[in-house]
Amino acid sequence: MKIQELESLLQIKNIRPTAMRLLVLEVLNSRRTAISLSELEIVLENSDRVTLFRTLKTFQEKGLVHSIDDGTGSPKFALCEEGCECIIERDLHVHFHCRQCGDTLCLPKYKIPEINLPTNFQGEEANLVVKGVCGNCRV
Predict the structure, then answer these.
(1) HSE-up of 9 (CA within 13 Å, CB side)?
(2) Please, which of 3, 30, 60, 94 could form a disulfide with 110 given CB 3.0 to 4.6 Å?
(3) Which residues pair with 28 in a beta bridge?
(4) Residue 86, pLDDT score
(5) pTM (2 decimals)?
(6) How many CA atoms lie within 13 A of 112 on its CB side?
(7) pLDDT tens, 22-73?
(8) CA 65 to CA 85: how far, in whole Å?
(9) Do residues 52 and 44 lie in contact, with contact meaning Cβ atoms separated by under 8 Å?
């Protein structure tokens, strides 16, 4: 994506397009795998950790990214697919964590099945992570 497209994406989500937000969005958009705060810090080596964390949290609150708990102890972040509103009943998908290379990928075509909770229960998050060996590592 060009910078104008990235700016537009931020504006659609009501996020003010600062230089740092554009850099973080560019990194997220260029990856096929989810990224942790530590990994993002390495990619954007001259950036402040707190600023990166706040940027990711803003993106998450505005529905631009979602976080993934893949069991590594460090949440990963990935861009939401177009039209996603992070609604538990509609937008949740399976994630895959490769035990060999450590990559975590979104599998948006594989939706988490609807879970009918008991009366008076309200789900706020759901996470399904399949762990194994990805196609690149199996070769």
Answers:
(1) 23
(2) 94
(3) none
(4) 67
(5) 0.85
(6) 20
(7) 999 999 999 999 999 999 999 999 999 999 999 999 999 999 999 999 999 9
(8) 10
(9) yes
